[in-house]
Every structure is written in C-alpha cells, then in structure tokens.
Amino acid sequence: MTVPMKRRPALVYADSDGNIFDWPALEMAGASALEWKRPKASELIPLPEGSELFLLPERHPVGFDPVRKCFKALPSDPSNPEKPVRAVAAFMAPAYTQIYSTAYQRLHGAPLLPLFAYTAVGWLNGGFVVPAVRIDLDQRQDLRNFDPQKIERNARKRMKAERKNRLVQHLGRCALTYGCPAARNLFMDRWEAPLPTSPACNAHCLGCISYQRQEGLSATQDRITFVPTPEEICGVAVPHLQKAPRAVVSFGQGCEGEPLLQAKTIEAAISSMRQATSSGTINLNTNGSLPDEVSKLCRAGLQSIRVSMNSARPHYYHKYFRPSGYTFDDAVRSISVVKRNGGFASINYFVLPGFTDQQSEWEALERLVSQTRLDLIQMRNLNIDPEWYLENLGADLTEKKLGIPELISRLHNEFPDLRLGYFNPPLQ
Ligand code: SF4
C-alpha cells in the first residue's frame, strides 16, 4: 500500500534529548550508496509495524530544500540553534526491502554504526513513512502474530521438561532473551524453527552478527558454544516437523558460525528426522562453502538450501566474506548441487541501495540465476554501516544504478519463475 501524496514527506531529526521531530522546511531524502535522492510517491509506504527508529550518532540529517532545489544538511536544532541534532533511521520489520538508506552527513570522528540496516524515514500525514516494498507476504515474523505469554509459558515448560537437551536450553534463551523470531515460532509450535549447530566458521564476514573482531563493532548475538548431538537436534526438530503447520526446520542461524563445518552431525540428524517423519521441510542456511558436504546432506534428506551473498560479483563477495579455504565458486556450486538433487535453492541476498542495483551487479546476478536455476532470492536489508561497508569493499560508486524498484521488475520480467521474498518457504 503506497502513500497518497499531495505534499512531500518532511525530514525528521532527533534533538539532543532524543526526541524526534519533523522539519517541514526540508523534504525527506534518501541515500543510494552515498548519493542523495528524493523518494517518489510510489516508493513510500507507512513505517511497518514492528519497526524501530534509531538515532545516528555524530551524523546530521540531510533533506531536500524545495526552494533552493538542493540537498542540504540540518546542522543544529531549528528550535534552538545552540543544540545539536542527529539523523534518524528506520530499522524495518522483517519482510520489507529498503529502496533508500538514510541520508546523512557524517561528522569527523563519528563512531561506526552498529550492525543494523538504516533505512530512510520521513513524516507525512501524521505518520512515519519509508521508501520500501513488502517483498514477502508471509506473516511468520509479523509482530502482531507473536503471543509473548504463550512463548514464555511454552519455553519455560520445555526447558524444564527437557533439561538434558542443551539445544532446547539454548533456544529457550534465544526466544526469551534475544526475542529471536524463529525461536519464538518454535515455542508457538508453528512455521519455521531454528537448529543452530556450529560454534566455528570458515569465513570472516565484515558484518558478522555472531562474532566480531572489528574495533568499535560488537556482535549482536552470542554464538552457540557447543555442537548439539543428533539426538538433541531431533529432540527439537521431529516434534516440530510432525505437528507444526507449514513446518520448516532450518540449520544455519544468526547465533552460530557455519553449519557445514558440522556436516557429519547434521547428516546423522537429518537421516534420523526422515526415519521419524516425512512431514515438513528441512532447510540449510549456509555460506555454501563445502558443496561436497551439501551433496551428502541432500542424499540424507535435505530439501532446501539458502546461500548467503552480499554480491554476485566474486571480487566484492570475497572482500565481504573473507573466506578461508573456499571461494565464491564453491558457494555457487552448493546451489547447483541442491538443484541437481531436485531440491529448492535460494540466496540470502544482502540489499544495499546504490550497490545492489548497480549495472554490473545486475549483470552478475542475471548470470547467477541463469546458471543455477535459482528458485528464490531473499532480498534482505544489509545490516551494516553503509559508508564503512562501501569503503571496505572499495566499491566503484561511479557505476550506473538501476534503482531497487527497477532491479525488482527486471528480475520479475526476465525470470518469471523466480520468486522474490524474505523467508524460507515450506515445500509441502
Ligand atoms: S558466514 Fe555467518 S557466521 Fe560466518 S563469518 Fe559470515 S556471518 Fe559470521
């Protein structure tokens, strides 16, 4: 649902006490990599329920001045010029893909932004608006569908009843402490449940959310510290596969390293699951580093894979993932292995406006989809400081940009069977 627009949305800013105001003298702007843009009416939607607003330290908001017809920063509080202001970003709820990032001017010495996605936000007709599109209609992580009392009750009951199952204890904490949507759905006995298994990883992603070595950046989740046994994994997975509606169980979660490093354990677990039940979907979220292990997992019963990618251009992939012992080609091979075994394959595609919609990225993505016969692109917003990311990739910002809406329509037109979404679909 786009926003009817007679007037353009106003810039929003935060004062030194953290209160958020609109400033109608400047229009809301967005950023495409480091280029400032004026969002079109067709690109704006109301801020989705479950989204959060972040105040960006040492960054002045940038808006568009309709009188002077130029972009300009708001350097201080309009109501009190002595006072500083900060830019405001939206961290959107799941299932929405951003069209523009937040437009701001970074001050000298500004700290790195934590590992979240920073989408542009403005004020219009008494509400916040964002340049975004709902890319997946599946409601599995819509805030309104979670029942905190039921989650608390079920999690505590299972943690008590299954004391010896370390994975149940870990996922209970994930649901109750971190509010992980997948763990919460597990304790609501529905949809997609998580099966983290690996404390280790063979990549060193710039934006890793479970293990960070970068000064000034902290991981947003603690990494699992043990490898669960196949019995512990099945203790979680089998009842879920048997009774949950639209059941999916997924290896490879934000609170772990790379699951393929535990392929032997996962293979044994999948075999046991399929001996116990033929219901539901068994999925693997992975960096795709070990295609031969993926092949073994397919023979054991793995049905779907999601391979993470910040770019379909190998040199940018390597700059982000900093893989050890594998390459971009291995990740692509893992997708093809699942397709050859009749499985469902998707990529977890990290979207950053102005980078993901570059001409050469589109050409590389076209080749990847054609070559692998991919089924789904999960267009997820990249959780990272955009300037730091582009600097570390050495991204060429002079490239022609299509715009995210144009990228989406080209994918639909060129690959009519390819799905665009956000979540791992149930296959039964
Ligand atoms: S592949 Fe996952 S766990 Fe490994 S470094 Fe990257 S984000 Fe972290």
So how many helices? 11
CATH class value of the largest domain? Alpha Beta
Mean pLDDT: 96
Q: At the fourth CATH level, what is the homologous superfamily of the largest domain?
A: Aldolase class I
Rg (CA only): 22 Å
Main β sheet profile: 11 strands, antiparallel
- Spans where pLDDT lies below 50 across 5 or more residues: none
* Cα shape: globular
Give the N-terminus to C-terminus distance in angstroms.
30 Å
The unique ligands bound to this protein are: iron/sulfur cluster
- The structure class reads alpha/beta
What percent of residues adopt helix (DSSP H or I)? Answer: 25-40%
The quaternary state of the protein chains shown equals: single chain
How many structural domains?
2
CATH architecture of the largest domain: Alpha-Beta Barrel
Q: Per CATH, what is the topology of the largest domain?
A: TIM Barrel
> Could you tell me the strand content as a percent range?
15-25%
Strand element count:
21
Summed up, what is this model?
The chain has 428 residues and is of the alpha/beta class. 29% of the residues lie in helices and 24% in strands. Helix 1 (148-161) runs antiparallel to helix 2 (166-178) and helix 6 runs parallel beside helix 8 (328-340).
Describe the structure.
- The protein is of the alpha/beta class and 428 residues long.
- It has two domains: 10-134, no CATH class; 143-421, Alpha-Beta Barrel (TIM Barrel), CATH 3.20.20.
- 29% of the residues lie in helices and 24% in strands.
- The longest helix is centred in the middle third of the chain and has 14 residues, at 148-161.
- The radius of gyration is 22 Å and the shape is globular.
- It binds iron/sulfur cluster.
- Residues 201, 203-205, 208, 210-211, 257-258, 287 line the site of iron/sulfur cluster (SF4).
